[in-house]
């Protein structure tokens, strides 16, 4: 699949806007059904988010994919496509292309040689399927016609029977993320659920901001709870607040003004250990330092002093202090925004789209796939799996 400057023809069976994960998957699969397929993207390169994903190694799927790993206003919406395209099918594709991968914690699969291999695989598949790709193409207007759509673009007008919107979400604007898909949805009367950054660090205002800044770079294994959802993974302290896998997971559920709760000791009975410290007359600071590093221990004890009181502490006081360590409640000021987010929550309302075909219920021939929809996965390869599964399902009907 070579990048073209113009279109080979004026009419296509299928035009897909967005040469990202979902768009390329859909293009190849529709091409294999002998549909003529054109993919348009305004970016100079295809699939820019795949290239930077997973720290450049692309966490392309997960061994354990369940509907519970997704956030969607209608939690049933994801079931059909995910069931019809399990991660094992994508893994087979990766293996067929000779791409080496490794399994990391929580069933996450990453390439070992780099995310570019996944892009190359998708482009090769699209090429074999006879798909045309035009990059750097601005879509100026979309109009519905009798039995199809007309697109006015910077490369001229072009027509199709089925129009697939695969323009993704709003995260990472520097990679040409746009709200084009939401605008098209609104143009055709579909509801759009308000977007907000997801899988994103959380930031704090003073005095917590300075408190965290002094510990920037420190990583702790914690359990974090937000809106009843619990995750246990690493928390990384940053100059603005907190990040790391556990924070990204929780950020999908956090709302401004709401607290998050951190258990600094998910693996031990803190009350029992504090009682033991008291009985043995051992210093709290040393015990804390062994568990959570000296710098964190010092900063914590400055904020929540207790060492002097330990020897005479009542059971209730010990319990209260243990609770503070296991139910540390913080109120983040905000997320770090779309520039630092991996995904956006919200998007095209799934109530307006078929979960089987991804066609707009009130607008025949118009389809929405991937992250542009109000579907957001947890961290762990779930967002790509959604792109593959929705792209594949849509490709069967366009
Ligand atoms: C830093 C980072 C790391 C990530 N790591 C992972 C990971 O390891 N695993 C995982 O599962 N997910 C990861 N994600 C999320 C994942 O990249 C997305 O969920 C996924 O790419 C969504 O696929 P999509 O095809 O819907 O959209 P995208 O892949 O974003 O593709 C959308 C395409 O549409 C094009 N487009 C947008 N607007 C227009 C327009 N107006 N006209 C024409 N074209 C347009 C864009 O240029 C882009 O090529 C990561 C995201 C980021 C930002």
Q: Could you please describe the fold and organization of this structure?
A:
The protein is α+β, with helices and mostly antiparallel strands and 398 residues long. It folds into two domains: 244 residues, 3-Layer(bba) Sandwich (FAD/NAD(P)-binding domain); 136 residues, Translation factors (Elongation Factor Tu (Ef-tu), domain 3). It is built from 14 helices and 22 strands. Strand 15 and strand 16 form a beta hairpin. The longest helix is centred in the C-terminal third of the chain and has 14 residues. It is elongated, with a radius of gyration of 24 Å. Bound molecules: flavin-adenine dinucleotide. The site of flavin-adenine dinucleotide has 37 residues, from helix 1, helix 2 and helix 14.
Looking at CATH, which topology of the largest domain would you report?
Answer: FAD/NAD(P)-binding domain
Taking the alpha carbons of the first and last residues, their distance comes to: 20 Å
Number of helical elements: 14
Helix content: 25-40%
Highest-level CATH class of the largest domain: Alpha Beta
Mean of residue pLDDT?
Answer: 96
Main sheet record: 8 strands, mixed
Radius of gyration: 24 Å
What class, by secondary structure content?
Answer: alpha+beta
So, CATH architecture of the largest domain?
A: 3-Layer(bba) Sandwich
Low-pLDDT runs: none
Count structural domains: 2
The dominant shape is elongated
Listed once per kind, the bound small molecules are: flavin-adenine dinucleotide
């Amino acid at each position: 699949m070579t990048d073209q400057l113009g279109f080979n023809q004026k009419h296509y069976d299928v035009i897909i806007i967005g040469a990202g994960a979902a768009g390329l998957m859909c293009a190849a699969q529709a091409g294999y059904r002998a549909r003529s397929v054109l993919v348009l993207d305004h970016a100079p390169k295809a699939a820019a988010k795949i290239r930077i994903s997973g720290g450049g190694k692309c966490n392309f799927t997960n061994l354990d994919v369940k509907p519970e790993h997704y956030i969607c206003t209608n939690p049933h919406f994801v079931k059909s496509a995910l069931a019809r395209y399990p991660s094992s099918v994508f893994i087979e594709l990766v293996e067929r292309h000779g791409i080496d991968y490794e399994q990391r914690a929580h069933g996450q699969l990453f390439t070992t040689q780099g995310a570019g291999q996944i892009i190359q695989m998708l482009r090769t598949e699209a090429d074999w399927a006879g798909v045309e790709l035009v990059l750097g193409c601005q879509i100026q207007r979309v109009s519905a016609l009798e039995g199809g759509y007309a697109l006015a673009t910077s490369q001229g007008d072009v027509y199709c029977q089925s129009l697939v919107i695969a323009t993704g979400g709003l995260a990472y604007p520097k990679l040409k993320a746009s709200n084009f898909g939401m605008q098209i949805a609104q143009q055709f009367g579909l509801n759009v659920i308000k977007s907000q950054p997801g899988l994103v660090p959380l930031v704090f205002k003073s005095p917590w901001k300075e408190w965290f800044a002094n510990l920037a770079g420190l990583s702790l294994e914690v359990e974090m709870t937000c809106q009843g959802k619990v995750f246990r993974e690493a928390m990384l302290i940053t100059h603005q607040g907190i990040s790391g896998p556990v924070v990204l997971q929780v950020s999908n559920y956090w709302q401004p003004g709401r607290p998050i709760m951190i258990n600094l000791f998910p693996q031990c009975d803190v009350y029992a250990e504090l009682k033991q410290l008291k009985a043995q007359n051992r210093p709290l600071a040393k015990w804390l330092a062994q568990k959570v590093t000296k710098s964190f221990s010092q900063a914590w004890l400055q904020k929540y002093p207790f060492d002097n009181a330990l020897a005479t502490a009542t059971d209730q006081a010990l319990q209260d202090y243990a609770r503070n360590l296991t139910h540390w409640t913080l109120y983040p000021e905000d997320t770090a925004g779309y520039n630092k987010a991996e995904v956006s929550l919200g998007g095209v309302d799934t109530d307006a789209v078929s979960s089987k075909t991804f066609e707009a219920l009130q607008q025949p021939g118009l389809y929405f796939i991937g992250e542009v929809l109000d579907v957001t996965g947890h961290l762990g390869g779930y967002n790509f799996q959604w792109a593959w599964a929705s792209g594949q399902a849509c490709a069967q009907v366009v």
